[in-house]
Design brief:
333 residues; 4-stranded antiparallel beta sheet
Length: 333
């Protein structure tokens, strides 16, 4: 790249249109699919498109979009790294000044323990700080003389996290002056991201429902229905739409309503399926905003998080992060 001595103004030239197209496509794929395609095109186009995509993403000035793009590039790197041989993986890891080496075979009891790599615990901890799975806890790892034993797949995962952080740093630039044709593309990307933002938020919800992260209104509605209490139409819609958007199945939501005196399974199943986007218009509905719930008397009172948000699903996302930060590590976990 340095040898090419490419200037930003030159991107307006038709000569670089294929490169700019690929750069724009990288960002589009990140927005739509949270990944960048792995299929390599011409080397010169692929290599040049990356720094241009960095510039275009930085020019959007959207923090959420920047993070999504960095994660998408990291996922692409992970999938490609898994296809590389171990020597190449080692070379790439050392670009980031990792203390990494190939372990020797060790005998333990009657079996042979083999791992593909050993990594210094400081490098391991730096790249697992955002991982929540128990297997990434240092106390759960096989270590020897300060080095953590890793498989090739695990090493690729850690390198991809290093790449994610590297890309995020490169996106933290200001004062870019881009050619008009690039500015127009950046504007289109911002509009695309704006249209997809709600869908992206829902995609990032965990697959398992965490009742401890429910906002006060949903906790109150759920408690009322479990005790056979009456729910208003707005309350039923709010509870149902919240539950299906946090990962609860239609069957489970229907079962929740069985305690009501006016329960009708056929009608309830249709209504829940309709809200979940499985019936009728196939549109998945989201809960009303907090302001609407307060107007209809559904809000039982706000807590500290409520005062910072405007929507029950936003509360759920924030509370999930809080719970993860406060979660104690069980002995041996």
């Amino acid at each position: 790249m340095k040898a090419l001595d490419l200037k930003i103004d030159e991107l307006a030239s038709p000569e670089y249109t294929p490169v700019v197209n690929r750069a724009e496509k990288r960002i589009e794929e990140a927005i739509l699919y949270a990944r960048v395609s792995e299929r390599l095109r011409k080397d010169e186009i692929e290599i040049l498109s990356f720094p241009i995509a960095i510039m275009m993403t930085a020019a959007t000035k959207g923090l959420f979009l920047k993070r999504r793009y960095a994660l998408a590039e990291a996922k692409r790197a992970y999938n490609l790294l898994k296809q590389e041989n171990k020597e190449k993986v080692t070379e790439i890891a050392k670009i980031f000044n990792w203390k990494i080496k190939r372990p020797e075979r060790q005998k333990a009891a009657s079996k042979t323990i083999t791992h593909d790599f050993t990594l210094h615990f400081i490098d391991f901890l730096r790249n697992t700080s955002n991982f929540h799975e128990k297997k990434w806890k240092l106390v759960n790892r096989l270590t020897h003389n300060g080095y953590v034993h890793l498989t090739k797949d695990e090493t690729a995962r850690l390198i991809s996290e290093e790449i994610r952080m590297h890309v995020e740093k490169k996106l933290d630039v200001k004062g870019l002056t881009l050619p008009e044709n690039i500015v127009e593309r950046v504007s289109n990307l911002k509009q695309l991201f704006s249209r997809q933002r709600g869908k992206i938020r829902l995609e990032e919800m965990p697959k398992e429902v965490v009742t401890a992260a429910f906002p006060p209104c949903i906790r109150e509605l759920r408690s009322s229905i479990l005790s056979g209490g009456h729910l208003s139409h707005v309350g039923r819609f709010a509870l149902t739409s919240f539950l299906v958007n946090t990962g609860m199945t239609v069957d489970n939501v229907v079962d929740l309503f069985r305690t009501l005196s006016d329960f009708n399974e056929r009608m309830t199943r249709y209504q829940v399926g309709h809200i979940a986007g499985e019936k009728g218009s196939r549109t998945k509905y989201i809960p009303p905003r907090c302001e609407t719930l307060r107007t209809h008397g559904v809000c039982p009172g706000m807590d500290e998080i409520c005062r910072r948000i405007r929507h029950p699903l936003a509360y759920y996302r924030i509370k999930l992060r809080v719970l993860k930060m406060k979660a104690p590590v069980a002995p041996g976990a």
